[in-house]
Amino acid sequence: MTAELTVNQDRLWQSLMDMGQIGALPGGGCCRTALSFEDKRGRDLFVGWCKDAGCTVSIDQAGNIYARRRGRKNSRPAVATGSHLDTQPHGGKFDGIYGVLAGLEVVRSLNDAGVETAAPIDVIVWTNEEGVRFSPPLAGSSVFAGICDIETLHDSETTDGTTVLQDLQSIGYLGPEQAGGRKLQCFVEAHIEQGPILEAEGKTIGIVTRIQGIRWLRVTLTGQDAHAGTTPMNRRKDALLGAANMISEINAIAIAEDQETRLTVGRLDVEPNSGATVPGRVFFNCDLRHPESATLNRLDEKMEHAMRNIADTFGLQITIDRPINVAPLEFAKELIDTIREAADTLGYANMDMLSGAGHDAMNVAHRVPSAMIFVPCKDGISHNEAESATPADLAAGAHTLLRTLVAQADIAP
Amino acid sequence: MTAELTVNQDRLWQSLMDMGQIGALPGGGCCRTALSFEDKRGRDLFVGWCKDAGCTVSIDQAGNIYARRRGRKNSRPAVATGSHLDTQPHGGKFDGIYGVLAGLEVVRSLNDAGVETAAPIDVIVWTNEEGVRFSPPLAGSSVFAGICDIETLHDSETTDGTTVLQDLQSIGYLGPEQAGGRKLQCFVEAHIEQGPILEAEGKTIGIVTRIQGIRWLRVTLTGQDAHAGTTPMNRRKDALLGAANMISEINAIAIAEDQETRLTVGRLDVEPNSGATVPGRVFFNCDLRHPESATLNRLDEKMEHAMRNIADTFGLQITIDRPINVAPLEFAKELIDTIREAADTLGYANMDMLSGAGHDAMNVAHRVPSAMIFVPCKDGISHNEAESATPADLAAGAHTLLRTLVAQADIAP
After folding, report:
1. Which domains does chain B carry?
2. For residue B227, pLDDT beyond 90
3. B357 to chain A, minimum CA–CA distance in Å?
4. Residues of B with CB below 8 A from A263's CB?
5. Cα separation of A402 and A405, whole Å?
6. Which terminus of chain B has fewer Cβ atoms in its 10 Å neighbourhood, N or C?
């Protein structure tokens, strides 16, 4: 590998800013939800850039985009990178987009240096990572990994009342390639951290060794609606008071466990939700995450036990179901080592870390060796128009990605 | 007063059942929201019954209906009774309607017995007690009492986008009489208890001596939206976790005070209310009631202090405002004594009690001596299709009302 093989920080930044113009919001963020017209425009811009860079572009039946830079041995499975171009409704300019455009920057940099790799390099855009307009989230990579079948995705209904199949057709991204048919040697996804750790630790590169497991406990409490003025407090079955006690208690359980535990009650709905009525029904969702399966199981059990006790105390019926239950995942050791070596060689302060969020790489890892490279984002803020990262950190991540992909592409098959 | 002067239990029950057919719901309840077409049909039915009973019917500018049974001295202010015909969207057949039709039963019974009272007797239907389609609730009696001016009511917008003035005109209940212009000697409102106390105590008649004070504390907490997977629990500003702790704590404060205290958090809204996002904003409403002003003030202060402390602990900004602050009210002693004497004479087990709910009589009491008669309702359930009361209890209340009104009408002016 030549010493001159580097990335162009300004070009990468400019591409991010150009993409950020599509679906731009007043607060500096983007709304480019999956398979919307804005998503189509973002895809078109990316495909144009890839063709200009000499790539061959293929689309699969899930709308995933594969931009291939050919190598010396094109029969070899590609060394792949990428992420997603879709955003939250009030999303930022970096979540997902960075991973795609870092991949493009790798291709452009290889072109600049006139380097030909042994294996081809694919830059992939996965469809609907965010899951805003339709389910499932991480849709394109789920189909690629065989976790979701293509018919289920095609039949999925969007919030606009269309189906995914209709939307893929109407934006021109229903491709002929079988989703999951493509052979890859490995997949490395670059991403902003979406958390505060790298910034706090003063590191430039996060080497993601694991993605924590995630479990959702969906709790429904049924008490009895009652008049706020006439019903003595000791004769109530107040579902919200029960929920409040549960939320306090399960948070205490989670905090007592260890610093890696994440418990979030982010959604809570009250019925009838009227100021003068004791609420007879409350629904809330517990998002529980931990890197160890055994700990997830133990916390789940403790939380359920505590919530059932509180339900009894308050005279409430309780039902709990678990619509999401994803086991923790370890990324591929050989890729992690390659990334660490690249970051060390380039002199970027780095650390091994856990991903708190789910990512497409988590799905792809079920098919091929995968890993992730994180770069810092300001104040750990993401899923927010205020999402921000520095051009230097973004370039460092792309540079680390470049060396990682080249090393992987040039190893003996 | 003759020993034969009694009410007709079957007729009263049949009138309640007939009125319950208008806006009838599948579960046995009614939807007859104020100034709706169903409300018009209910009003028309009542007016027809009153005219059949020989009453003179007047309508005021607030749509309040006054059905007058003439007395020997018609220059005297009327002895008045009544309540409301409008319902909650999923209301019952008794809340409000009973007080109106008990008044009609008094008129019919006096007719049957050929009794002429000294003062005239008015049966009044107050407009929009429930406040479902427009504000304020207790609208007709508020205007009558001078608490709300007629222009404000007329300009009030309904949930259907019309104004109250338009609705009054379109259903034919915009009357010429000045709202509040009518002189009354007193006002006695019969009502189902809407609580469980009479049933639990085995009493037939509740003599309402007081209506408790009510105060709403509207609390808004602002923290910071954050990613559920990436944000360590000790770096969060979780508005819902703060709210949960506050709800537990202020309930403990209320329960520790005394058995008369009622605290209800009935409404709570979370933003962005997404399973995987730490909630950055929560709004909730505290409905605090107590018969003593000093206790209300002390509880309010304790609750605010506790909530501000918890907000500090969780790094949340807190704002509290008080959109409702109604002082406790004592009903007129001479009326209370008259009701008690009537119930005792008739042999109905009775008790003095507090009203936990607000009622039109609470407003009318600002203008003329007022009181209320409660009868039991099944399991204390109200604002619910399942609302239920027995024909015998309803007749007992009407009989007590009859004797109370006659006694008041025949005292020296």
Report:
1. 9-211+328-410 (3.40.630.10), 214-326 (3.30.70.360)
2. no
3. 5
4. 233
5. 5
6. C
